[in-house]
Design a protein that fits this description.
Elements (H helix, E strand, L loop, with lengths): L1 H31 L4 H6 L21
């Protein structure tokens, strides 16, 4: 029974370490992020020049 508790506690610690590491990396990336707004607005290819409209299902009985 002691071995089972050691395995449960060990698995819990590995999970906590994994999630805390992922959280810490995401937090650091969020805090350190500095968008380059001038470069984003300087790119004219971001906006589309055309609008397409389509339906997913054919309309029956409209003939």
């Amino acid at each position: 029974m002691k071995l089972l508790w050691q395995a449960v506690v060990g698995a819990f610690l590995v999970h906590v370490l994994y999630w805390m590491t992922a959280f810490l990396i995401g937090y650091v990336k969020t805090v350190m992020y500095q968008p380059n707004i001038e470069a984003l607005f300087g790119n004219e290819q971001v906006l589309q020049a055309e609008v397409h409209s389509a339906t997913r299902f054919p309309r029956y009985g409209t003939d």
